[in-house]
Design brief:
The chain is α/β, with parallel strands linked by helices and 240 residues long. It is built from eight helices and nine strands. α4 runs parallel beside α5 and α7 packs antiparallel against α8. The radius of gyration is 19 Å and the shape is elongated. It starts with 5 loop residues before the first helix and ends with a helix.
Length: 240
């Protein structure tokens, strides 16, 4: 039985049963294996006629081979298909309705999504974990027709990971209202309040250093000032 790290576990609650899932940049395929073992994912007919529970894809051959080894070891070869491809290229043949992209920079995730216009379809769900620039991702999702419907946090050591769940809903979009919301999110459940507080405090420290460096270099600090002000408001709203 596969055991997931806290950051991977954050994806699980957003996965719908009876829906074909694509795990992009799968590496070891731990997430789709776990979801199959827990019977959250069950076999469905893909667009191309294959009966599958999940697709595990990666751009590099090495991770795909590692994924295949783990899938075989767990006797799930008939349920999880591995694909070596760049981003979502070619996965439209299977028409997954849930796409997971974890462990990549926010800007790279945006480019992967923008290169796959077929994801703009009714019932499509994205489960995303940007390692950097989450604000770029939150700002881009509404432009692509996706509404953010859930957010979650996890911590491993000092690192806090953000997960964003977004559903295709071009008629009910709500872009981030300010730079702090774009950077750190706002839809976390009450039990993640302290993690959200830590995330904001880390963001304030990082942006303060960047703002001071710009000031010393004689550069404009208006954007930093606006972000820091918004982060302080967000922090105060969390209360004790």
């Amino acid at each position: 039985m596969i055991h997931l790290s806290p950051r991977l576990m954050c994806a699980v609650k957003y996965v719908r049963q009876g829906i074909l899932l694509a795990d992009v940049g799968t590496d070891h395929a731990y997430l789709p294996i776990y979801l199959c073992q827990k019977r959250i994912l069950t076999p469905v007919e893909a667009k191309n006629g294959e009966v599958l529970s999940a697709i595990a894809s990666d751009i590099n051959k090495g991770p795909v081979e590692r994924a295949e080894q783990h899938i075989r070891a767990e006797r799930l070869s008939g349920y999880i298909k591995t694909v070596c491809t760049d981003g979502l290229n070619g996965l439209e043949a299977y028409a997954p309705k849930t796409v997971v992209v974890f462990g990549m920079g926010g800007e790279l995730i945006v480019s992967i999504l923008e290169a796959a216009p077929w994801i703009k379809a009714s019932g499509m769900r994205l489960i995303l974990q940007p390692m950097t620039h989450p604000e770029k991702l939150r700002e881009a999702l509404p432009r692509m027709g996706f509404a953010i419907t859930g957010e979650s946090l996890s911590a491993e050591g000092d690192r806090i990971y953000q997960v964003i769940c977004a559903d295709y809903a071009p008629d009910s979009l709500c872009p981030p209202k300010d730079p702090a919301e774009a950077l750190t999110g706002c839809l976390y459940p009450p039990e993640e309040k302290q993690l959200h507080r830590r995330l904001i405090e880390q963001a304030i420290k990082k942006e303060t250093r960047a703002r001071n460096a710009r000031n010393l270099a004689g550069q404009d600090t208006a954007a930093s000032d606006a972000l820091l002000a918004a982060l302080q408001v967000q922090l105060q709203a969390l209360g004790g």
